[in-house]
Design brief:
heterodimer, A: mainly alpha, MetI-like fold, three-stranded antiparallel sheet, 20 helices, 3 strands, B: Rossmann fold, four-stranded antiparallel sheet, 34% helix, 25% strand, globular, binds adenosine-5'-diphosphate, binds magnesium ion
Chain lengths: 452, 265
């Protein structure tokens, strides 16, 4: 201190080399640093806002798919129409087609409206029955065939309203658009207003969206993701079964046993290359090998899973090798030092320590496989499938199925706005699955994180 | 067991446990060890000293064939364990390592319980028939490693949670649990504080009663304290090998003298 005060001869203004004054170089470096920080912030804000916009539009367009309008009214299952012979013989019952049931539903609905005193001037019978989904007759027929004792009784029937009426309740269809639309009339919308007022036409959670199979262009209201979800689950299960053992075995061999020579180098390079092959190429490969050559059934989740396994395998191998490599060599030394064989070292020590990393990599690999679309288009999984595949142990993996991303694609390419809404809804379901898988991966990593 | 004769250990009465002759080691093109001849006696502590990179660890790792794990490493010459060539084609290194245990420079317990760390070797070598026998081996090994009193109440706690000195003693317990005949230690105290070092040195002195111990060390005081025989390596050559007292008080080679007086290394 005394020394410094002794230098009181110093001028009051700071000298040129004082620490309190930034020199030119420092100033330039600081400016560059500040600029760089800003570039980074701008880049992050940009990408986050793109993500936000994407999520916003998907949820804006897609959440309505989870609601569906339906009409509830009593229906008398008249025996002389449904079972003219009166014998309740299943063969006889099956002779009544959905057209017969359709007529019955139309009549009964009209009768119900008259009884309730609901009328709209100038509305035709066709308009009245046209309020109800074309899906309803088939559904009612299935109910009756499953339980013939219903015949002759009056039941409370709940039918989907058609896509246009549903759209009217969601605000997609208005009186103005209806004027230009041959699929819906103004009278129908007026009738809908009255039904809504009487609580006969209501809108509720659309569980059918998650369970129903796909439906044709004429009845978007009954289209659902049931078959696609089953197909995707089957594929994920099979991909896991195919890739995890193979991927882990290959990784252990390459990391711990393979001699370091040209051949293993070549294999390594090719595994990385395999991860970079465009997925559509795997689709062509699958078409040629699994369907044309091996004769496996088209559109089946088995073929889909085989093709996606080819794509997921390199991802799993790369993740597994990284996890194995991250196990410190001192652990291997320790095991070898007490006389463990190489195999014991790997299975007793290396693999358990690498397991969280392997599982995390596998889940992330499966998550990206879940979103894979292009190869599935080529092997026919974009087919219109209305029958659920059988159970997994009854050969269900050989039955035709679709997958979530493929369903998104096929709905997005249909013209009815009700399908476009469902396409976004399917994306939400797909994203939900992906979020669940990623959270599982993160939890796994947290839970088993090791310190050594 | 002739522990009673230990007071003034008579080197002349000890038989040779390991005799190495003409050992050469190459790592690729790097000639790391040149023509080394050493005889390691039973129930004796042999210290390897020398500057960094002179090949002490390399030679130590030849004695239990840990060098087999290094792809580029080639060993020639002859190393006999009780008259049997350990590099013979019929020898399985796994069996050899059960007889020649090793303790590493950095404590490396398995990330498992203390009990499992010690029990692992006996388990994989099928040394016990039941849990009681295994328990006995674990306790005896931990006692020999002077760790039993500190951990007997928490054998289920993970081994990596111990202090550095305790971890190293756990590694020693793990190594002696398989009842090896030779114990190799590569700078076992370099990661330890002086108190832990003293404990390990005391332990080495204890182990001498039963095992042949080979220790690599950077500390000449340590070599003088714990060993009866000392080998001085320099640039891949075995420069001098003899009784510890003679090496430190009356070195024959000028390089040895330069090293122990602190002029090289
Ligand atoms: N795994 C290895 N691969 C290649 N060279 C090695 C390896 N280990 C040691 N060496 C080389 O062998 C020589 C002796 O090393 P080392 O035995 O570790 O010496 P020290 O233990 O005496 O310090 C050094 O030149 C070192 O570079
Ligand atoms: Mg060393």
């Amino acid at each position: 201190m005394t020394d410094i005060s002794a230098a009181g001869a110093m001028p009051a203004t700071q000298p040129k080399n004082s620490l309190f004054v930034q020199d030119d170089l420092t100033r330039r470096r600081n400016a560059a640093e500040a600029r760089f920080k800003w570039y980074g912030i701008v880049a992050i804000v940009l990408s986050l806002s793109v993500l936000a916009i994407m999520l916003f539009t998907i949820f804006r367009d897609g959440t309505s798919a989870f609601r569906q309008a339906s009409v509830a009214f009593p229906i008398t299952l008249e025996a002389d129409i449904l079972d003219p012979n009166g014998a309740r013989d299943p063969a006889d019952l099956a002779k009544v087609t959905t057209i017969g049931y359709g007529n019955l539903i139309g009549q009964q609905f009209a009768n119900f409206l008259t009884a309730e005193g609901i009328t709209v001037e100038g509305i035709s019978d066709k308009d009245i029955s046209g309020m109800i989904s074309r899906d309803a007759p088939g559904r009612l027929r299935d109910m009756v065939l499953a339980d013939p004792s219903l015949i002759g009784q009056t039941i409370d029937f709940n039918a989907y309203a058609t896509g246009r009426i549903d759209g009217y309740m969601k605000g997609r269809v208005t009186l103005e658009t209806a004027e230009l639309d041959s699929n819906v009339s103004l009278e129908q919308l007026q009738l809908a207003d009255q039904l809504i007022a009487r609580n006969i036409l209501t809108s509720g959670f659309n569980s059918g969206f998650l369970t129903n199979p796909d439906a044709s262009d004429q009845r978007p209201e009954s289209a659902g993701l049931g078959v696609a979800i089953i197909g995707s689950l089957y594929m994920m299960m099979l991909v896991l079964i195919f890739t995890l053992p193979v991927g882990v075995a290959a990784s252990i061999y390459l990391e711990e046993f393979a001699p370091k020579n040209r051949l293993t180098d070549l294999i390594e390079v090719n595994i990385s290359n395999l991860a970079a092959v465009p997925s559509i190429v795997f689709g062509i490969l699958g078409l040629a090998i699994f369907i044309n050559f091996a004769g496996l059934p088209q559109s089946s989740s088995l073929v889909g899973a085989l093709v996606i396994s080819l794509m997921t395998l390199p991802t799993i191998i790369i993740a597994t090798r990284a996890a194995i490599r991250a196990v410190p060599p001192s652990i291997r030394d320790a095991a070898l030092g007490v006389g463990a064989s190489k195999m014991q070292t790997v299975f007793h020590h290396v693999l358990p320590l690498a397991m969280p990393g392997i599982l995390t990599g596998t889940i992330l690999g499966l998550a990206s496989a879940l979103g894979e679309t292009a190869p599935l288009l080529l092997i026919g999984m974009v087919a219109f499938v209305t029958n659920y595949p059988a159970g997994p142990f009854d050969g269900g993996v050989m039955d035709p199925a679709t997958a979530l991303p493929v369903q998104v694609y096929s709905w997005a390419s249909r013209s009815d706005p009700a399908f476009i809404e469902r396409s976004s809804g399917a994306i939400i379901v797909l994203l939900a699955f992906l979020v669940i898988m990623n959270v599982a991966a993160i939890l796994l990593r947290r839970r088993f994180e090791r310190r050594w | 067991m002739n522990d009673m004769t230990h007071k003034g250990l008579d080197l002349a009465t000890q038989t040779a446990k390991i005799s190495a002759s003409g050992v050469q080691v190459h790592y690729g093109t790097n000639h790391a060890l040149k023509d080394v001849d050493v005889t390691i006696l039973d129930r004796t502590v042999t210290a390897f000293i020398g500057p960094s990179g002179c090949g002490k660890s390399t030679f130590l790792r030849c004695l239990n064939r840990m060098n087999d794990t290094v792809a580029s490493c080639r060993v020639s010459g002859q190393i006999l364990l009780e008259g049997e060539d350990i590099y013979d084609r019929r020898v399985d290194p796994v069996q050899l390592r059960a007889k020649v245990g090793m303790v590493f420079q950095k404590p490396n317990p398995f990330p498992k319980s203390i009990y499992d760390n010690v029990a692992y070797g006996p388990k994989i070598h099928g040394m016990t028939r039941n849990k009681a026998e295994l328990d006995a081996i674990v306790e005896a090994s931990l006692r020999k490693a002077a760790l039993w009193n500190e951990v007997k109440d928490r054998l289920d706690a993970t081994g990596t949670g111990l202090s550095g000195g305790q971890q190293q003693r756990l590694c020693i317990a793990r190594a002696i649990a398989t009842s090896p005949e030779v114990l190799l230690m590569d700078e076992p105290c370099s990661a330890l504080d002086p108190i832990a070092t003293a404990q390990v040195e005391e332990l080495i002195d204890e182990l001498r009663h039963q095992y042949s111990v080979v220790i690599v060390t950077h500390s000449m005081q340590q070599a003088a304290r714990v060993s009866q025989k000392t080998a001085f390596f320099h640039l891949g050559n075995l420069v001098e090998f003899g009784e510890t007292g003679a090496i430190f008080t009356n070195p024959k080679d000028t390089r040895t003298e330069a090293y122990i007086t602190g002029r090289i290394g």
